[in-house]
Amino acid sequence: GTGLLFLVRPEAVAMYEMKPLGAAGRTEVRCYYGALALGLAGFIAYLGLNELGREALVGVFMIASAILVVRVVGVFVDDGWGERYNRSAVPVEIGFVVALGGVLAIG
Question: Is the pTM higher than 0.90?
Fold first, then answer.
């Protein structure tokens, strides 16, 4: 989703109230929000296609958990709960991490 969007349209980070200023800013968005997301997705797909599906899920669980923890801490540190995006992202990410944890626990 957003990885491809940010790769092609780095100015789309404005929907997260970020501003890619200048050529270096747009390139940075393309690299870290676009290419990194696509690279991780490709690696996870590779694992899944090579009978390493559980390992792929563990990797996704670890990444999603880290993102959730940093987002929750950031919301409090930056006093960002008033931002609409944070109010929607936190519950969605909690649901995703819980679902992944459930899938991993069931086996």
Answer: no
